[in-house]
Structure formats: structure tokens, C-alpha cells
Amino acid sequence: MTDRIIAIKESLTQKLKLQLTGAEAFAARHPRALTGTVVTLLTGFAVTAFGIAPLAPDAKELPQTLVEQSIPHPDLDAQLAALAEHQIGLSRNELTRSSDTADSLLKRMGAFDPAAAQFLRNDPDARRLLQGRAGKMVQLTADASGTVQSLVARFQAERPEQQSSHFSRLSISRQGQGFSAKFETLPLQAQVRLASGSIRSSLFAATDEARIPDAVASQMAEMFSGDIDFHRELKKGDRFSIVFESLTADGEPINWEGAGGRLVAGEFVNNGKTYTSVWFKDSVTGKSNFYGFDGSSKRRAFLASPMEFSRVTSGFAMRFHPIHQTWRKHLGVDYGAPTGTPVRSVGDGTVEFAGWQNGFGNVVHIRHSGERTTVYAHLSRIDVKKGQKIEQAQRVGAVGATGWATGPHLHFEFRVKGAHQDPRAIARAAEAVVLPNYARGQFQQVVAQVKTQLSVAQTVDGSTSAD
């Protein structure tokens, strides 16, 4: 009986060796569709065949019956042929660059397809991919030879009024020997996300490491600007946790200017002291603001700065005038920033003047309550009109170098009854916005919810979805 079992083993082994020899020969004929990994897996069947062993050490003493049965073996040649016909695909994501051409973009994404490149150059819709701003999100699918099968690009909506709420999607697909393109404008979707981080060098290095959009990072700095001087008081080891709404295009997070998302709540531990804040919208007035969890407002009647981030190049003091070459009292604050940087109103008010004014160049005057006026000078553009009602933080123009300016910067003034005052002192002393009594019940419900989310955010390394 033992000799017959050995004979059966040898017969099976011989058959498997013949089939494996055929598989190896097939692999040599089709090197691109098959790798040595397939042959190695098939060899494992031979190992399994030799795994036959007696059921127990005393198997000879048990009754034995010889059963012969023909076991059909799969046709390995047919299976290998089917595997060779399977197309291996390539899928890759990239961002467009300002220097991209149709050919360079496809090459960087691992595709070689002159026909696809020509379509990108000639089709009216496909040309949108390389027009306008760089940074478009592109997803490409190609076959094993590098021939493009499909391309989808998502980018900021082209119409200015839609750029904070919609995105454009360009879909290109192969149709036989040619291509077709479809261009759509679709609404962005909001997704609640959690993030946390710690300070090693700077606030923005920490938010970048936590994958927090720039717009949300700016809102966090604004949220706690009344509690923490981020230029002087920030310390290594300080930590933060936030809840924010991230806008997505087809589920992909975006970080486009004007559509970076909204901060919902935050906790910041600075030098051992904890500060908390939540964004709350008054359902009656429709106005929103950041509040501490106790209901105290984080917003004052005037912001500390007319720009989110900048450096003060000349304060409210005596200075040597760069053009007149004399020492003069500087009746405002100059903020150095690149041309085009958005300039915002520091408070609610009405546009009193918007136009050209001698040394100020393009300038905007806004009248506020209490006989107070703010001035924004040397603008490269003006985005408001005389008589227009303005809300705090609303854009009024952009940094420039018009009028008597030696370089791009914003000259900002604060006047009370016509007399010049130090803008930063006025902002610090400005009255706080009070949470109405009728809104406190709803506010406490919001606080209870975000407290739970912030406790989870503290355990998050980087940014993650809260869904």
C-alpha cells in the first residue's frame, strides 16, 4: 500500500512539473503582462501536493481502503492566456504647474499619448486645464502602454461670484480613437474635520504640519488674537485643537483662496493657560462672531489690523519720510505686504470716499459710529463705492503702491472727530460685541456639541474627517 501511495505522489509531481514548465515558458513569451510572482504562486501548489501525510503514527494498524479518483486540473495555459489579456492600468494624481504644457503634464503623470496631448491643446473645453491659475487637481488613468483612458480635473469656479461655493470639473474620456470632453460647474460640499498640533517654530508651520487649510489657520489666529499676541507670546510646546468645516470637490479637500473652509471651534493652550472659542451665528440678526465658551465675545467693534497677516513697517510715531527726506510725524500705521494682498474694513460703517487722492493714491475712507473714520491708502484696486454699507472684515481693496509710495504697502489711519489716533490702541480699547440674551440657550447647545468634538480632536495627529 505504501508503495502505491508513493507512486501516486510521483505521478502528481510529474504532472505538476510539466504544467509549471509550460507556465514558465508562457511567462518568457509575455514578460509585460506576467511576472515571476505568478510562477512562484503556482509553485506553491507543488508544495501543497507534498503535504500528504499519514493521519496518525499508527495508520498501518487501521483498516485501509484504496480509492482511486481522477481529479481534473485547471487548464493553466488558458488561465495564463486570460491573465495576459488583462490590461494593467495606471492611475495618478497631480497638481498643474504654471510652466506646464500638455506634453509635460502627461509625461509627469506617467502617460505618453500624443493624441491626448493634441486634444488638450485643441479642444475648447480641454484647453481650460492649462489656462488660468495653476494648482488644478488632476486625476489621470492610463493603460500599461501609457495611453490615456480618462482625465478628470477639478479647480476653482471661473466666475468670481461662485468661487467660494462652487468648483469646475473637466472630464476627458477616450472614445475609440478619439476623446470627448465635458465641463461642469458644481457646488462644493462641506465636511466637518478635526485637527490638532503643537508649536515647534511658528504657528503656520504647525498648522501646515497638521494639514489645516491656510484660510482656517488665519481664522484661528483671528479667533485668539485678543487673548494671545502670536508675534511675542507664542512659545514652543504650546498646543491647539480645532473643529472646522473643510470644503471638498467630489470628496477631495481643497485649499483655494476664498474657499478654504470655516473654523467652528478651537482650544489653544499658551504658556500653560487654556483659551477656548466657538463660532456662533445669531439666527435673528444673521450676524456671526467668535465667543468664549462662557458667552464672552472674542470680537470687538474694531479689528486690530486691516489685513489678516502682515508686518508693520512704520508705526504711529515720528519717522524719516522716504520721499520728502525729512523727519515727520507718521499719523497712521504702514503694513508691508505684496501687491494684491486683500485689505479689509476693521469695523462696520459706510464708505465716505473711494477714489484717487493726491499722495494717498487709491484710497478708501469709511465712516463708523461715534464720529470715527478709518483710511486705507495706496491701494492697487478699490472694491467698494461711495455710500456703500460695509461690515467688519469685508474686503475694501488690495495692497498697492499708488500715490506717494516707494513700494507696495498699506497706509492705515484711524481718526476720532478728525483727530488722528493710534489704530492699535483704539482696537485694544474698543467695546466688545455682546451675545444677546435670547440667543444664550441655543449658544449653550452649540458649546456642548463642540466640547465633545474638541476632546476627540486632541487625540488626532494631523487632520481627519469627523464623519
Automatic annotation (TrEMBL):
Keyword Transport carried by entry: no
One annotated GO biological process: proteolysis
Alphabetized UniProt keyword annotations: Hydrolase, Metal-binding, Metalloprotease, Protease, Zinc
A GO MF term: metal ion binding
Superkingdom to which the source organism belongs: Bacteria
Gene3D superfamilies found in the cross-reference section: 3.10.450.350, Glucose Permease (Domain IIA) (2.70.70.10)
Keyword Hydrolase: yes
Pfam family, one: Peptidase_M23
Protein name per its UniProtKB record: Murein DD-endopeptidase MepM/ murein hydrolase activator NlpD
Organism of provenance: Roseateles oligotrophus
Upper taxonomic lineage: Bacteria, Pseudomonadati, Pseudomonadota, Betaproteobacteria, Burkholderiales
